Amino acid sequence: MKKKKGKKKMWIILGCVAVFLLLQWLFIGYRFSFGPFKSLGDIRMAKLPGNAESYGMDQLETMEVSPLQGKKILFLGSSVTYGAASLREGIPEHFAVRLGAEVTKEAVSGTTLTDDSNSSYVHRLLAKVDPATPYSLVVVQLSTNDAGKNKPLGEVSDSRNKEDFDTKTVTGAIEYIIAYSHDTWGCPVVFYTGSRYDSEAYAAMVERLMELQTKWGIGVLDLWSDEAFNRISDADRALYMYDPIHPTKAGYREWWCPEMERQLLNYLT
Question: What stretches of 65-199 show up as alpha helix (H) in DSSP?
């Protein structure tokens, strides 16, 4: 009798967990316009002042002299690269127009650098990105999901061999992506951070990224550290950000991307 009660209790718990996960998936899908809620979410997102058509990337002008004119750029990231709160129009689209470049956007919302699923940055880099494509630049988002999911930070390795890195940690995954990109394409690798929000874990990831910049000579488009950059009015923040992490079109075009462009050109030239 006790065994039956124990099994019943276990099934109730599993059922509650399943319902919780389903509700969470439905909520995230509605909030960030994917899955069955994509069309409904797009309608809602389009009503945001920061997603007005006037902020579209197609209205940007290509710079007269671009170091990446006609070149191929790979963008690897999660929801911020995807443009989850901006109708999928953000950083890759900005640089495609401004730099006159051909971009590949390998971005999936909710994914992590740490390689513990078939949607991680590392897994998708190996499984979905054609190594024969002659990329001239690889741009990687320092994902907030690793911070939010409390992924282990790990340690900086003494090695430069990609087989030596623990990709189950944030640091190991970053080092693997850098080493793989250098070995495969021999091109510059640039990571970018998000703007400031309340997260000690992400702050630690940014600090670690700076250490890796010293080791590898990578570019870092740092939107996190500059106090002046992050000191914007409440009105601008309401226009630019859907939440503390995800920009609207206006946030990308008017706030993030001009600064990223400045830092990128300084690094490349």
Answer: 79-82, 91-98, 121-128, 144-148, 170-185
Average pLDDT (1-27) is 64
Q: Are 98 and 264 in contact (CB under 8 A)?
A: no
- The kind and range of the H/E element at 134 are none
Indicate whether 86 pLDDT > 80.
yes
DSSP string, 56-75: -GGGS---SS-TTTT-EEEE
Q: What is the CATH number of the domain that holds 184?
A: 3.40.50.1110
Global pTM reads: 0.86
- Tens of pLDDT, residue by residue over 135-188, are 999 999 999 999 999 999 999 999 999 999 999 999 999 999 999 999 999 999
Cα gap 190→92, rounded to integer Å:
13
Q: Tell me the residue range of the domain where 244 lies.
A: 57-268
Local confidence band at 40 (pLDDT 50, 70, 90 cut-offs): low
Place of tokens 């990687």: 140
Three-state DSSP at 119 gives: coil
**Residues 6 or more apart in contact with residue 98 via CB below 8 angstroms:** 60, 61, 62, 63, 66, 257, 261
pLDDT of residue 169: 98
Given a contact cutoff of 8 angstroms between Cβ atoms, the answer to whether 196 and 188 are in contact is no
Measured between alpha carbons, how far is residue 196 from residues 8, 50, 71, 185 in Å? 47, 19, 31, 32
Is the pLDDT reported for residue 1 higher than 60?
no
Displacement of CA 254 from its chain's centroid (Å): 19
The secondary structure of residue 36, as a DSSP letter, is G
CB of 256 closer than 8 Å to CB of 247 = yes
Q: How many domains does the chain have?
A: 1
